[in-house]
Amino acid sequence: MPRPAVSCTGDSVETSRERWLVPLALGTLYVVWGSTYLGIRFALESYPPFALAAIRFAIAGLVLFLALRLRGVPAPSRRQWRNAAITGTLLLLGGNGLVCFAEQTVNSGIAAVAVASMPLFAAVFAGFYGEWPHWREGLGLVIGFVGVVVLNLGAGLSGSRLGALALLLAAALWAFGSVWSRRQDMPKGPMNTAAQMLSASLALALTAWLSGEHLPAHPSAHATAALIYLIIFGSLIAFSAYLYVLKSVRPALATSYAYVNPPVAVLFGVLLAGEHVGPVDLAGMGIILIGVVTVIFARQKAR
Q1: pLDDT tens-digit profile of 196-236?
Q2: Contact at 8 Å (CB) between 99 and 178?
Q3: 41-50 confidence digits (pLDDT tens)
Q4: Which residue has the higher pLDDT, 288 or 241?
Q5: Among 150, 152, 177, 248, which is most buried by a count of CB atoms within 10 Å?
Q6: Taking a C-beta distance cutoff of 8 angstroms, is the pair 133, 126 a contact?
Q7: SS3 string of 140-167?
Q8: Does the pLDDT value for residue 54 go beyond 80?
Q9: pLDDT interval class at 273 (50, 70, 90)
Q10: pLDDT at residue 255 above 70?
């Protein structure tokens, strides 16, 4: 029996919509999340690192939380708030906060590549829970480790050992938080991100206070514009795009931003901020990205 014409029309409209929405969402992830590293550098011209991250996630988290509640999404339970607070502290204080701290002395492009080592740490931490890496993942880990060593030999990180340590610690904490949260009772959907951002903003504000940071009395328009960009595009629009591709395409494609963002960040840094990337830095970047791609696709084959 033929299907009703109205259903066919609906299916064709939905298919047509996906044909342009998926590439648009992926392009948003590639460009926006790749550009946030440079956005952080510009914002740091006036705002101290941990205070910058606290403001960003407090505003973005509050906007997202209120929008979800107005749509009738239930608030997290007490246990979910606790788990979201732990995860948000690991990811957004330990991860993003340390990236902001490191970018005071490290190029934005180099920072993006160092953070791209996160899947390598995630594969190791997953082993603590019995999910030991497949041999292909192990190969990727070895390649990525070599890339990290080479990157530390380049001019981009060798001049700031503290910045290099902060970036590697940021990647490790982000990875551990991601692996740990998968086994916890977390808020559902976008409410998870809203709860994490709100919780982490408190931890970031406390860290900023303990570090003696102060908000600028007269921040530059340039730095404030960068902060607004991070809130709207980096924390709200790009995250919405990520949720869409996560449910619309295969995981390997949805997570491809992990190895597309670094070269995008390097390109933005060179073109818009006059950052310099030496041959050893480029070699380290390439090796790390090869390791990350090896781990990601090995994981997909294992599934």
Answers
A1: 999 999 999 999 999 999 999 999 999 999 999 999 999 99
A2: no
A3: 999 999 999 9
A4: 241
A5: 177
A6: yes
A7: HHHHHHHHHHHHHHCHHHHCCHHHHHHH
A8: yes
A9: confident
A10: no
Alpha carbon 303 to its chain's center: 24
> Which two three-digit tokens encode residue 175?
């990875």
Q: Tokens 């708030």 — which residue?
A: 81
